[in-house]
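Sequence only, no structure available. Ideas?
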Amino acid sequence: MRFGVHTGLQHTDFDELVALWRRIEAQPAFEWISIWDHFYAADGSGDPHCLEAVTAHAALCCTTARVRCGSLVYSVGYRHPAVLANVAASLDRLSGGRVTLGLGAGWLAAEYDAYGLPFPPPGVRLRQLDEAIECIAALLRTPEATYRGEHFTLHHARCEPKPLQDPLPLWIGGGGEQVTLRIAARHADGWNVPFVDPEVFAHKVRVLEHHCEGASRDPLTLEKAVNVGLAWDEDDLHRQFDRIAEYVRPGVLTGSTQEMVDRIGAYREAGADWLIVARRAPFDADALDRFASEVLPAFR
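Reply:
I predicted one. Tokens follow.
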């Protein structure tokens, strides 16, 4: 199992993020840092204080030298897949070949509504996601892409220069068992789901494996990741997650060091290749250092 940190972009600024990213990268146990894609705070409050994702992703690429620079996840409802493909290719070159591009169908209706962006029903957004990952893969991995779908069309389209990685990993985020996991099985290099307990994660892995079987794919070729919270006490949980604390609680590491080790072991047994700790401002870097020094040695 490999470990990383997912850094939220609400109620913070780049000075704080850069310091945090550098401190995370200084811990050898962490091999991943990612950002999210929101225009408003991702807590249902309607607070608009949130940094833009592509800018933050570029800053992450420039600030770090070792870790993978991920996105969990870009909403395909905010940018045409050709835009995301060109973003990914440029970011990968900026980072020296360390980018993972995570994609999702989007969920925070308030920010779509605020900006007048279409927010169709889930089935439509998932079909958009399915088409978008096909378009992005074609643009990044072939000399020329032609695609005609319900939502997106490419005419002999090119994305140059290509990313340094061949191929640049594409991940799908979300836990929907009928469609999202099928899209991941058919098209993605990795899959990520946030804030579920080990039992739910294990069930979703079994569903994902079923979809891989239907796609004639070896499930071991698809990386599986879970985002979890980290709270050494109740105050820390509520300080980070506020009004959504109870919603995320099933997927939060808490309690003693041994309890956290056991919980992570359960995710590993359930099939997780990556465990990514999701943090929000106000960031507590000391808590991450403690986690790296007290908990993660059990997995070396």
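The chain has a mean pLDDT of 97.
Hope that gets you unstuck.
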